[in-house]
User: Which sequence fits this backbone?
């Protein structure tokens, strides 16, 4: 195959391709080692969650479960509340966060892209300003507001907070999405008698759908994983989301820690995120690009 | 038909109708902006004002609040535990950010070119980014704890650790674990941004460098990195800020221990505000943290601008 080509300068063509092939193989081997190192903690935790509780806590540690069991999942509880409650709480908070973030940012992004409102730059700057104050530093104020609105110990209150701090990124994303819709499409629809509101569900939503998926994905990960605000705002075990329930299970009863149960809880909490990312990678990267290139 | 209507209507409609239409569109715009504006006001602006106000008060959960002027700030500046937290957070941030960036750069160079298995390798390295930091801390706790931890058992078998040695009692070891787990969990993000940036550089630029006889190192430092200056600056800034605000992994892995060795500034804020319930004092600490971050950001942007100008 290479013999037909004239030899390249410096090295014969055959040697060149052999060297680059060898380099590609070296790269593959290095990549496999790296991937194993990164994937092993996740894989080991998932496998361990299916061991029997005594095997999960046992010495010496095993890699492959000797007997497969879901006992760790059933045994995961905190003050008598089972894992199902925590899963349900996390799902509820996350779904509310996704819906509120998506609806609010689609509307705001539409306005910033296509409406002739006054003080547009100043209003947009107000949204961006949220990025410049870390929410951790605002937690005391947020706590006071939430208490005076009687939203403490409320998953809805938590979702409102998460949505607020997703807004800068989400509104920015949706504004860019609506801006990339050609003006002719909006004008044509208006001439057909569509108002600016009716055109949104009928024509525009389909055109900005990739942006919506990106916004929803980031809102999902934020709502599902957030830790500090949930720790501060939720007081009763029945309201705990998964990350907080995991911590209270870590404390354990009578100072013993059920390691297998924690591994089961960690698995339940991390697997949805990893799977969702694998399925929607394209949208995640789109969010990164629009965020970093600006 | 619609274009006909347009033709007929357009010249006939007086300027007044157009301003009325504009005013109506404007009103619709404000209305659509309302949900997000309410959220920003209620959960950002009001808490911001409240936190700043609280910092000038003695503000217990129950009982009377009274203004104390700058007393909370004076106390914070003389509080040894606060300065310990600032010092720990600063060098932890520096260490994790530098090591993390080096790792991200190495991974980006390794996983950028086309080779079999590239997509899956990238996905696996990136997967931990999608996991929560608190959960990641617990995951690593199950791996390194002195009883069932598989890592510690391997090290004991190899004779690196004694049979009864438990490194969760050793401050230095806990910090080392925190650094490793943080880099494991976060490095995928800067790696991906670097790869995206490198992919955006035209292949002819590399070719020109090769013809000029540039080696891999000078190609990297003289061409690749300067050309992706902007995403690079952003990613470094975000990494530093995120590390400075670390809380979750210290809370789940070590509870700030042993002996307060892993109490970060946000951890100290949490302790004062939500465990000791000294809300006024904690608010002053919160304001100081926000100011520290603002200074950090300004310095970093300045340095980056200067290096970009050169």
Assistant:
């Amino acid at each position: 195959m290479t013999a037909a080509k004239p030899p390249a300068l410096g090295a014969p063509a055959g040697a060149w391709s052999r060297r680059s092939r060898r380099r590609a193989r070296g790269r593959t081997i290095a990549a496999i080692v790296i991937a194993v190192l990164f994937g092993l903690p996740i894989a080991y935790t998932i496998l361990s969650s299916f061991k029997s509780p005594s095997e999960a806590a046992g010495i010496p540690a095993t890699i492959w479960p000797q007997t497969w069991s879901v006992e760790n999942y059933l045994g995961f509880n905190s003050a008598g509340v089972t894992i199902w409650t925590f899963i349900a709480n996390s799902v509820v908070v996350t779904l509310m966060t996704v819906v509120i973030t998506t609806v609010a940012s689609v509307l705001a992004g539409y306005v910033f892209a296509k409406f002739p409102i006054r003080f547009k730059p100043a209003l947009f700057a107000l949204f961006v300003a949220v990025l410049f104050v870390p929410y951790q530093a605002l937690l005391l104020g947020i706590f006071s507001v939430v208490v005076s609105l009687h939203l403490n110990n409320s998953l809805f209150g938590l979702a409102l907070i998460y949505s607020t701090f997703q807004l800068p990124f989400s509104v920015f994303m949706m504004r860019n999405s609506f801006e990339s819709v050609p003006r002719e499409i909006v004008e044509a629809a208006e001439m057909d008698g569509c108002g600016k509101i009716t055109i949104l569900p009928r024509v525009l939503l389909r055109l900005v759908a990739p942006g919506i998926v990106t916004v929803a994905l980031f809102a999902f990960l934020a709502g599902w994983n957030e830790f500090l605000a949930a720790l501060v705002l939720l007081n009763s075990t029945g309201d705990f989301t998964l990350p907080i329930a995991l911590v209270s299970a870590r404390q354990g009863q009578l100072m013993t820690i059920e390691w297998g149960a924690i591994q089961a809880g960690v698995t339940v909490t991390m697997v949805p995120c990893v799977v969702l990312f694998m399925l929607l990678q394209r949208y995640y990267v789109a969010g990164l690009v629009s965020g970093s290139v600006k | 038909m619609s274009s006909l209507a347009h033709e007929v209507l357009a010249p006939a409609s007086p300027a007044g109708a157009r301003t009325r239409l504009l005013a109506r569109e404007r009103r619709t715009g404000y209305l659509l902006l309302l949900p997000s504006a309410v959220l920003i006001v209620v959960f950002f602006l009001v808490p911001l004002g409240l936190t700043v106000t609280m910092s000038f008060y003695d503000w217990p959960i129950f009982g009377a609040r009274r203004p104390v002027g700058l007393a909370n700030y004076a106390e914070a500046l003389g509080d040894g535990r606060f300065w310990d937290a600032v010092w720990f957070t600063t060098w932890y941030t520096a260490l994790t950010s530098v090591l993390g960036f080096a790792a991200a750069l190495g991974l980006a160079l390794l996983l950028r070119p086309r080779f079999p298995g590239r997509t899956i390798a990238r996905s696996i390295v990136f997967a931990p980014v999608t996991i929560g930091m608190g959960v990641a801390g617990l995951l690593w706790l199950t791996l390194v704890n002195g009883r069932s931890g598989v890592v510690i058992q391997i090290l004991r078998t190899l004779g690196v650790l004694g049979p009864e040695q438990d490194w969760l009692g050793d401050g230095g070891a806990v910090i080392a674990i925190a650094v490793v787990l943080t880099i494991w969990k976060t490095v995928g993000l800067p790696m991906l941004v670097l790869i995206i940036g490198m992919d955006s550089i035209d292949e002819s630029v590399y070719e020109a460098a090769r013809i000029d006889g540039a080696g891999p190192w000078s190609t990297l430092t003289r061409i690749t990195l300067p050309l992706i200056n902007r995403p690079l600056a952003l990613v470094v800034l975000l990494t530093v800020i995120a590390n400075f605000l670390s809380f979750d992994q210290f809370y789940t892995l070590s509870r700030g221990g042993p002996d307060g060795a892993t109490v970060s500034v946000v951890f100290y804020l949490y302790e004062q505000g939500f465990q000791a319930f000294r809300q006024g004092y904690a608010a002053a600490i919160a304001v100081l943290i926000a100011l520290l971050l603002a200074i950090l950001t300004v310095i970093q942007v300045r340095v980056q601008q200067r290096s970009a100008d050169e």
